[in-house]
User: What shape does this take?
Amino acid sequence: MKKIAMAAIVGLALLSTAANADADKGKRIYQKKLKSVCGFSGGDFAAKHTQDEWTEAKEDGTLGEMMTEACPAGKDFFESSKFKKKFSSHLYDFVNDFASDSGNIPSC
Amino acid sequence: MNKIVLSLAVSGALLSNVYADDVADLKAQVEALTQKVKKLEKKQKRNSKKISKVREHDANDNIKFDVDFRTAYDNIQYKMADGSRDNDNDGLYSMRLWLNMGYKPTDTMMFKGQLAVHKAFGAKYSTSTTPSNNFDSFDWVVSENLTDGTVRLREAYWLWTPTALGRGWTLSMGRRPATNGFLINHRDDDKAKSPIGHIINMEFDGISASMKTGDIIEGSYLKVCLGRGLSDASARFNMSEPDYITSDNMLHNMDLLGVIAKVYDDGQYTAFAKYYRAFDVIGMDMTTNPAAPALATYGDVDGAALSLQVSGIGDEISDFLDDTTVFASFAWSNTLPKDDQAMLGSTDKESGTSIYVGAQMPNMTGGKFGIEYNHGSKYWRPFTYAEDTMAGSKMAVRGDAYEAYWTQPIIDKIFTMQIRYTYMDYDYTGSQAFFGDAGTPMTMADAKVAGVDAVDTAQDLRVYFRYRY
Assistant: This one.
């Protein structure tokens, strides 16, 4: 039993990943879940608002609404519980990195 | 009693008048304050918008610089085929600086550049200045090799991204990124800068144009690249001919034409296909004058690859699988000799193939762990001279190459470290050469009989610390 528990702990440890927000992961999530739905690139999506606007929406808990405004076709995704629990922090980091006033230039 | 009642009534009436006046005053004051607050709110909104506009203008009105500085330790060991000696270096320390810059004045035009320094710790006792003998200052690889503290141009190009005929196009010219390409970028912990990591990894001057076809196949585009690897223009102020003319005293122009197709990309599954032909490639001529080998112009070379990547296995099965990347790639090269001039030791067309597979997984420390394997056949010959491996290009190996690495953020993504081990087991000689006699493949046994001092196995253990901001 100890061996099984130990193996399970080790396995879980190996399988667990850090839950830190990650702009690169946000970019991948956009590409995978939203690019074809929205019909434009992640850079264009992020540039629809300034950094302050994205940050304010995050702090007010209205990030989903603001993203829906930027990409109406993604409404279902932005209203899903998975967006709130799993994707919003990564997507926020991504849009913040490439907001219209970020000065960052997307890779070509 | 009446007097008392009367006086109370009078004072009540007086008080109510006073109270009514106060309330009216207060109302007026509140009204005035509300108007003021409204005005202030409007003003604040206007100011916020103005600040955002100023920030936006400011952010996009100057060249942005960022720094990528890496200090590394490499332990390198070679085992020779004849067993005569083992070569190694158990203390090679190096530093690499990339000064990146970018400017995007409009939505459709950008400039990007990169200046680079790559040097070993300590002065170099003998610095090669003649590429015919030592190639570490050769233009294709000059920023990848350990030379001196000279700042060199690694990238500089403009990129125009207009929309025409209902689709997106790109046009770009300059010293384009052809290093840190697709797939090889994982072990380098870089974003893929070019789509051709399996077969081309070198600095590249040229022009490219692409057409987006995402409306037909998701994420797809078609790109044409033209590059010049060698110029036959004469040197300025030389004593025998005018400046910069096409010179018979120089090696011929060496050009490359490539077609790249991003076949599919939905963010999880990505497929690239490429084909190129390199014209008048160079090689070491050891036949004309064996006592003094020299670079010469040879025939043409074809190359092609199909590369596939899966970013995230399944769909939200677990965080581990979501963050795991696996890839596989197949590549081919083919020589096209001219005038019975042997290429890679043969006057016939010789084909080589290579397979390349790998996986990168997240680990519990917030870093990434990766493993890679590639195998090249007898006549395999890619353009991967600028690969970031101190013991030679692993992608060029005619034999087997194995690699494992652990990349770990220490302070977010600003300060990272990597431990990487690369092992290359050669089946044939000539893996790291150009397209002439030096690229002739011989088995290790044949090399031993012929007295050729060939590398049988090579390994590179690297530990680096890298600052990026």
About this structure: Chain A touches chain B through 31 residues (CB under 8 Å).
